[in-house]
């Protein structure tokens, strides 16, 4: 599976300032199916299993992934002079912005969607995302942050590309109340889309997370600890399920740049940035400037065991 990336800006639809980052593998993108039954998993930790039929025939295909911090309305300030005034206080504002976000996501039609700062505390917004994504052929999974923070994560995968094998949730239980999602899927693409027959049964692990914001340098260790927990959890899951060498996608808002310790640690563990792969960038300082948009905090999709 060869990974290629198409970046897209999230600012035009009112996200949290991080880039919406996508990778595309060598596999077609059909129109989303509207007749699929959807499976939705919330923070209860239920396991979702489904076997969506493949609708792709003999044409070449590709897999794509979008990660997007959509900025929860409870955090979006509307007035610099009045910091307590939030978008969540005005239904018309947050509803309009999130409708635009959904329209953009459905227009892109990526096979994997990973959202951060998803407003899990608002049932109307949650149902809007679940219903729209379900109608478009996605299976959705949401996970709220611990201690009733009000926001969390949402992951969606399209039925035409994946069969759901397992779903797990990781609670860091730290002072940042951060969480992570792990989704174990199997490709359902036809053999004509692959050079090798066994590629049609290729399994994949997808992780979605939102790391702690680096308010000061002392939090660098805490952020590294969060990433270490994720890798340790993934390694344990691989070992328990005999998944040696399975491709892994770590996606989300890392709240850090290529110059940070988290990114460098992931590189030391064999992960590569999908953005760098697509644009043939390196880890040099010059390229780090370009990829991180003047070293602003950005989202990443990093890959390992992809060929």
UniProtKB/TrEMBL annotation:
PANTHER family from the UniProt entry: CARBON CATABOLITE REPRESSOR PROTEIN 4, ENDONUCLEASE_EXONUCLEASE_PHOSPHATASE FAMILY PROTEIN
A Pfam short name: Exo_endo_phos
Organism: Linum tenue
Protein name: Endonuclease/exonuclease/phosphatase domain-containing protein
One term of GO molecular function: 3'-5'-RNA exonuclease activity
Region (Disordered): 1-51
Lineage, broadest ranks: Eukaryota, Viridiplantae, Streptophyta, Embryophyta, Tracheophyta
Compositional bias (Low complexity): 36-50
Residue stretches making up the Endonuclease/exonuclease/phosphatase domain: 97-273
